[in-house]
Amino acid sequence: MPATDLTLLVSDHVDGALYALTVPDGTVTHRLTGRHISEHAGFLALPGGRVACVDDRRGELLVLDPFGGELVELAVPVAVPAEHLACDPSGRRLAVTTGTGKNSEPWSDLLTVVDLATEETSRVRTRAGEPGVTVPGGGDPLVVLRHREPGALAVHRFADLLAAPPGCPPATPHALLPLPDDGHGDAYAPGPGRVFAATGEGVHRARRAGDALTAEPVILWGSPGRGWYLRLDTRRQALWSTLRGGAPDPVRWPEWTNRAWRHDLETGRTHLTDLGPGLVFRLALSRCHAAFARIHPDGDELVLLDADGPDGAVRRLPLAAMDGAPRRGDTPWEGVQRRAVAASPDSDWVAATRGGHGEVHIVDAETGSEAARPRLGTPLHHGGHMVLRARDDGAEGDPVGR
Fold first, then answer.
1. pTM (2 decimals)?
2. Compositional bias (Basic and acidic residues) at which positions (predicted)?
3. Around Cβ 198, how many Cβ atoms within 10 Å?
4. Above 50 in pLDDT, residue 205?
5. Between 20 and 30 A from 34 (CA), which of 13, 110, 217, 318?
6. Are 56 and 85 in contact (CB under 8 A)?
């Protein structure tokens, strides 16, 4: 794949910088300043290589076109702080939930829906919390909010939300499906038309039935621990997560166990692969590999798991140490540097950040060789956040922000 067919978007959400880089050489083609992209809501793949994200300081949903002349194609006002972001399978209708932000308790109950074709937006009140969101198609789109404490999948009609009067009125769900209180992690598979939500006991699934959802059997984790992140594999029609086990005390994070979890949606088979101890969270999916960044006091590494082979072969590549990395005796969350990973389902290139140093490792997953390590003009606090896109890579088949 020629380098010009791939663009890596890299965000430093603290310093407010957004970069576009060509891959694999790492040349910067665009740089935006004053743009504080929500790391939690992440990047959402749209058709044509476009990407949606939320500027948490300006309160705008951005549509980015890394293959066009101007990087920012559209900016639409939305409620913030952005918690989760999703669209319908067409990429036209989007929903943005609000979360805690820099507050200790949930306080915002605002949900924003956007029609990109008409640039219409509407804000309604739902329920204060940190809700996940999916936008199922298969008819007029729905908006499904995944709530916690009490847990539920709350179903709204997108058209009803968009037609709500001004003034942020309360929106009553059209239907409710009970869910455990500890939900965290969402996915939607447009092909089979199923919504998935990760909980402590496993992955709850539901299929659309008219303007409601019907529950189906839970997919058990099949291993100690649980997944706090859920991702749809658009090439293999599988669900992926990272199962974290061990003591819940965050100070003991170097002892945490981590297993890659893959569930094939067609065969119903689940595969587990040990990744090693420490901190592993989000993952990225390339053409043939699943990529994980593992942080540990004894050394960090990029773990590349063969996503197609029956044995799930693993390649481990050492990563340069980070100043300010999580240390023994402290938590891995506050005031420390971390790593982000990115990949495209139509490419073998994988990227991993070096938080605090402003560096990005660009690696060929097939050979394990590093092609470039560009250094950007900001530190990439907390590891920053990234997305890798090709114009027609099919990543929009996963309609949930990552």
1. 0.97
2. 389-402
3. 26
4. yes
5. 110
6. no
